[in-house]
Design a protein that fits this description.
The complex is a heterodimer. By secondary structure, chain A is of the alpha+beta class. Helices cover about 30% and strands about 30% of the residues of chain A. The model of chain B has no long low-confidence stretch (mean pLDDT about 95). The longest helix of chain B is centred in the last third of the chain and has 16 residues.
Chain lengths: ~190, ~290
């Protein structure tokens, strides 16, 4: 309860109409963001505890989270050797979700339950994303795969970087490019 | 010289091959097809002098586009684009200008289109405050009406330049027709029985200012305090750089009677997207199991 309380209080504070509409001073806006971020961090421990309970492991697994996937930054996947990813679905129906993870260039395999091989697409990240101020990431590509998640449940996948020598059955997004006509630029 | 086509089994989009601009959207299930273009533009934030109510400046509390010489300022696209095609999805990446880019993505099994935009920092070298808009213009016969949601629950019918409870005198052609959009807004073509729904990923302001059009305000940077309590302009005082924002609009084109089921499910799936946890794999496969 105390771990959840921090986010609960941050959301309580953010009920103020300033937080909802953005009519607060900049330093206050930054403070709302700080409170919410700290609250989320505490709740992530609760989620990890929940997954450990559900998966009935003998000793609790240490989980990590990536909060900056919206700018394709994730310290876990961009220095990938291999990692396990757990996806928790809180909806009460099966969800098909396209998972997009920032990675370095290379080939990767994704294995699902029962060692099933999951199709993967590796795509270069848009150039404009790479130059966002404040983004600190070595990821230049995006690994996409489609996960099928059970109602109010979770699914686990193993993601592995594979050597290029393996046959090319790992799909790459083909980039076809068209640049502006110079007169258009004028 | 053909159009660039991005397609899956449910939807098809065509783009002008010279500029990468969106041209049409087709629902392959219902065979409905609309001409559609999407563009970015901006409204100039009124400066006023706050001496009188009518001369209030645009700021954190107020959106008041300066329409003295036309409201809408188009941000012409540079015309550069990339097309990415793969087994799990296809996308067109549009480079609008040095501070606006967008990826229009269609996953293999999706019944909606993602418009993932990145805007900012908004340049203010011209000392003009700006509100950045993403506008969709279609061939749909939508008349004067559109719908916005109320906190993601029921829909509220809006009519252009109209209020149901009093006779409105329009002095702000844009601001008077902007409404809060927390989850979605949509327009309908009753003749074709089709509906174009746009889901937002955060609360935004939206409107339908012309027939067949819908727009959403995605970013703002204003240089004057509106004297309603913040005592500073909406310009990240202290950071001095302006913000880069990223977000997604999700478009659904479907029959009117099919739209609600589709956008409700998609809205929930977007809002309650899966939580992702990572853990190092240090032991044998059995531990993974």
């Amino acid at each position: 309860q105390h771990e959840v309380a921090q986010l609960r209080e941050a959301v309580g504070v953010a009920q103020h109409h300033d937080a909802i509409t953005g009519t607060e001073r900049q330093h206050v806006a930054d403070d709302y963001a700080r409170q919410l971020a700290e609250g989320i961090g505490e709740c992530q421990d609760v989620v990890a505890d929940g997954i450990n309970k559900l998966s009935k492991v003998s000793s609790p697994i240490q989980y990590q989270f990536c909060d900056l996937l919206n700018i394709s930054q994730c310290h876990v996947t961009e220095n990938l050797g291999q990692t396990t990813i757990v996806l928790w679905n809180s909806l009460s129906r099966t969800v098909n979700h396209y998972v997009r993870l920032p990675v370095k260039d290379g080939d990767y395999s994704v294995t699902g339950a029962g060692n099933s091989d999951v199709p993967v697409q590796i795509t270069p990240l848009p150039k404009e994303l790479l130059t966002i101020p404040g983004r600190i990431s070595a990821a230049t590509h995006e690994l996409t795969f489609r996960a099928k998640l059970p109602p109010v449940g979770f699914a686990t996948y193993l993601i592995k970087k594979v050597s290029k020598s393996r046959p090319k059955k790992y799909n790459r997004g083909r980039v076809l490019q068209r640049t502006a006509r110079s007169d258009y630029l004028q | 010289n053909e159009d660039v086509v991005v397609q899956n089994e449910f939807l098809s989009l065509a783009f002008d091959q010279a500029t990468g601009a969106l041209k049409s959207l087709t629902n392959l299930e219902s065979k409905d097809s609309i001409a559609i273009s999407q563009s970015f533009g901006y409204y100039i934030g009124s400066v006023g002098d706050n001496s009188k109510e009518e001369l209030r400046a645009a700021g954190a509390y107020i959106s008041r586009p300066n329409c003295s010489d036309g409201c809408w300022k188009e941000l012409k696209s540079n015309g550069s684009y990339e097309v990415v095609k793969g087994a799990l999805g296809q996308e067109v990446r549009q480079y609008i200008n040095p501070w606006i880019s967008q990826v229009i993505r269609l996953h293999t099994t999706s019944k909606h289109v993602n418009f993932e935009w990145q805007v900012g920092p908004i340049p203010i070298g011209d000392d003009v405050g700006k509100e950045i808009i993403s506008r969709f213009s279609t061939s749909m016969k939508t008349g004067e009406e559109f719908w916005t949601d109320s906190n993601g629950r029921q829909n509220i019918r809006r009519v252009r330049n109209f209020r149901s409870t009093f006779k409105i005198n329009i002095t702000e052609p844009v601001a008077s027709n902007y409404y809060p959009v927390v989850d979605r807004l949509f327009v309908r073509d009753n003749g074709q029985k089709t509906q174009l729904t746009i889901l937002t990923d955060r609360a935004q302001g939206g409107a339908s200012l012309n027939e067949g059009q819908v727009e959403l305000m995605v970013h703002r940077r204003l240089l004057v305090d509106d004297w309603l309590g913040v005592s500073e302009p909406l310009n990240e005082v202290g950071l001095g750089q302006g913000l880069v924002i990223r977000g997604t609009h999700r478009l659904i084109l479907a029959k009117i009677d099919k739209s609600a089921a589709r956008y409700r499910a998609l809205s929930q799936a977007s809002y309650w997207h899966p939580t992702i946890l990572f853990t190092a794999v240090t032991t044998q496969e059995s531990r993974l199991e």
